[in-house]
Amino acid sequence: MAKRKIPKKLQGVLWSVDVNHLDLEKDKGYIIHQIFSYGRLEEIAWLFKIFPKAEIIKIFTTHPYKDYEASRFNFVKNYLLNLKNQQLDERHYVKNIPRDLR
Fold first, then answer.
1. Under a CB-based contact definition with an 8 Å cutoff, are residues 27 and 49 in contact?
2. Predicted confidence (pLDDT) per residue in 45-88, tens digit
3. Which domain holds residue 44?
4. What's the sign of the alpha-carbon dihedral 14, 8, 51, 2?
5. Torsion angle, CA of 1/43/10/65, rounded to 10 degrees?
6. Does 36 map to a domain?
């Protein structure tokens, strides 16, 4: 079976690594969070075509990524992933909130 490739058009959102070197399985945490943090609706739609929603939710909730603007974090959490009733610590996601190191 041929390995699924990440489209070159996503390079602008996945800027820190050449998309030819990304692996959809090994790098899914980076891919999911980068697209949620910086992608447009077009890139977000691609994400939901590639990964099952349950897998996206699992990555989002169990592997926080401190690179979101507060408004983007809330949009992703509450509307795209419908996690309004789930408590997630913003300090682990929002980049302008100091991390609690206790």
1. no
2. 999 999 999 999 999 999 999 999 999 999 999 999 999 999 99
3. 8-92
4. negative
5. -100
6. yes
